[in-house]
Design brief:
411 residues, mainly alpha, 2 domains, 2 strands, 1% strand, globular
C-alpha cells in the first residue's frame, strides 16, 4: 500500500497562510485515505492542531526566557547569558537540563499527591486558553461561540493550582504566599473582565474570531478600525493592559514571588522540574493574556496598514508581530519600575482600575448611540478623561510619601 499522492493537492494546502494548519490537513488526508471513521479523523486532527499550538508556544517560552535576560541585561548595562552556545543561544537548553537533573525534594509534611498535581494543573489553564485564540484568518485551533467566556472560565483554575501548591507544601510561608497571590489574582480579574465587556457590547458576540472580523477595515483610509482607536477602547485597553500585568505576575506587580518578603511564595517548597513548571505556566499565561488583549483591542490578525502590497503577508504573522511588541513592553516595564507594596497593589485595583473599568461600559454604550463619529468623541472623551485625572490626582496624593526633613549635625 503506497502513501497518497500529494502532488495534485490544492496549492492552498502549501500556501503560507495555511502553513500552521498543514499537520491537521495531512492527518485528515491520511485518515480519509485509510478509510478511518469520521470521529477518529476529527479527533486526530484536533490532536494535531493542539500539538502545533503547544509546540509553538513552548518554543516561544524557551526563546523568551533568553530574550528577557538579554533585554534586562541591556537595560541595566550588564552582560546577559553568553556562555552556553553562540552568544548564549543554548541557554534555554542548559536551563532545561539543569531543571531535569536537579533533585526533587518533597517536604515530609507535604501532601504528596497535591504537591505533585499543583505544578501540572497550573500549566493546563493557559494551554486551554491558547487553544481558542484566533491567530490568523484561517488559523483558529478551536472555534467556540463562547470563546471569551471559556477563556476567563479556564483562567480561574490558576487560583486553584496556586492554593493547592501553598496548602499541600505543609509550611506557613507557601500558604501565606498562596493567599497573597490569590487575593491579587482575584482583585485584578475584576477590571480585566469588566474592561472586556465593552468589547462584547460593541461587537455583540462572545466569539473571538467574530470580534477580530468586526475590527477589519480602516477609518479615513489609513486608521485601523481597531477598538483601541476609540475613546472607550483606549480607556478599556489601558485598564486591561495594567490588569494583565498583575494577572501574569509581572513586575511591578510580581508580589507572589516577593523573595525579600515571603521567600518564593507558593513555590517555596518546590525544586527541580516542578519548579520549572510554575515558570512555564507563568510564561504561557503571559502569552495567553497578551493574545487576548491583541484580539480584543488591537485587531487580532488584522494588518495595521492599508497598503495592498502587504496582502502576501500571512495574517498570523501580524498576530505574532503584535505579540512580540506587547511582550517587549512587559520586559521594558520589568527593567524600569520597582516592585510595589501589597497595600498599594490592592488599593490601586479597587480604588482606581475597577471604577475606570466600570466607566468604560456606559462610554461604550454612548459611543454606539452617538453614531460612532465626532459626536461620540465629543461626549465620551470628557466622560472618561475627567475621572482619569481626578483618580490620578487623588490616588497620587493618597500614596505619595510624606516629605522628609533631614537634620544634619553642625560642623
Amino acid at each position: 500500500m503506497s502513501l497518497p499522492d500529494l502532488s495534485g493537492a490544492t496549492p492552498a494546502l502549501w500556501a503560507p497562510e495555511w502553513l500552521p494548519l498543514l499537520p491537521q490537513r495531512l492527518v485528515k488526508m491520511l485518515g480519509d485515505w485509510l478509510g478511518a471513521p469520521g470521529w477518529l479523523v476529527s479527533t486526530a486532527g484536533l490532536v494535531a492542531t493542539a500539538a502545533v499550538v503547544v509546540a509553538v508556544f513552548l518554543s516561544l517560552f524557551a526563546l523568551l526566557s533568553l530574550i528577557e535576560r538579554k533585554t534586562l541585561a541591556r537595560i541595566q548595562n550588564r552582560i546577559g547569558p553568553n556562555r552556553a552556545g553562540w552568544f548564549g543561544i543554548l541557554q534555554p537548553v542548559a536551563d532545561g537540563i539543569k531543571m531535569l537533573t536537579k533533585e526533587d525534594i518533597v517536604p515530609a509534611k507535604a501532601e504528596w499527591l497535591l504537591h505533585l498535581a499543583a505544578p501540572i494543573l497550573i500549566v493546563m489553564p493557559p494551554i486551554l486558553a491558547l487553544g481558542v485564540l484566533p491567530y490568523g484568518r484561517e488559523w483558529v485551533p478551536v472555534r467556540l461561540e463562547l470563546g471569551l467566556l471559556f477563556f476567563f472560565a479556564v483562567g480561574t483554575l490558576t487560583e486553584l493550582a496556586v492554593f493547592m501548591a501553598g496548602w499541600a507544601s505543609g509550611s506557613k510561608f507557601p500558604m501565606l504566599g498562596a493567599m497573597r497571590a490569590i487575593s491579587q489574582m482575584v482583585s485584578y480579574e475584576l477590571p480585566l473582565i469588566i474592561s472586556a465587556l465593552g468589547v462584547v457590547m460593541i461587537s455583540g458576540t462572545l466569539s473571538l474570531p467574530d470580534i477580530v472580523q468586526q475590527q477589519g477595515g480602516f477609518h479615513l483610509g489609513f486608521i485601523p478600525a481597531w477598538n483601541i482607536f476609540t475613546p472607550w477602547g483606549l480607556s478599556a485597553g489601558i485598564v486591561f493592559y495594567i490588569a494583565s500585568i498583575a494577572e501574569a505576575n509581572r513586575c511591578p506587580f510580581d508580589l507572589p514571588e516577593g523573595e525579600s518578603e515571603i521567600v518564593a511564595g507558593h513555590m517555596t517548597e518546590y525544586s527541580g522540574f516542578k519548579y520549572a513548571l510554575f515558570f512555564m505556566g507563568e510564561y504561557l499565561g503571559l502569552f495567553a493574556i497578551s493574545g487576548l488583549g491583541i484580539t480584543l483591542f488591537l485587531g487580532g490578525w488584522q494588518a495595521p496598514l492599508p497598503w495592498s502590497g502587504l496582502s502576501w503577508v500571512p495574517s498570523w504573522i501580524w498576530f505574532f508581530a503584535k505579540l512580540a511588541v506587547v511582550i517587549f513592553s512587559y520586559l521594558w516595564i520589568r527593567g524600569t519600575f520597582p516592585r510595589v507594596r501589597i497595600d498599594q497593589l490592592m488599593r490601586f485595583a479597587w480604588l482606581c482600575l475597577i471604577p475606570m473599568a466600570l466607566l468604560t461600559l456606559p462610554a461604550a454604550g454612548i459611543w454606539v448611540l452617538a453614531g460612532r463619529g465626532l459626536l461620540g468623541w465629543a461626549v465620551t472623551v470628557p466622560l472618561l478623561l475627567v475621572p482619569w485625572l481626578v483618580l490620578t490626582i487623588v490616588f497620587n496624593k493618597r500614596l505619595a510619601p510624606a516629605t522628609r526633613t533631614y537634620t544634619f549635625a553642625d560642623s
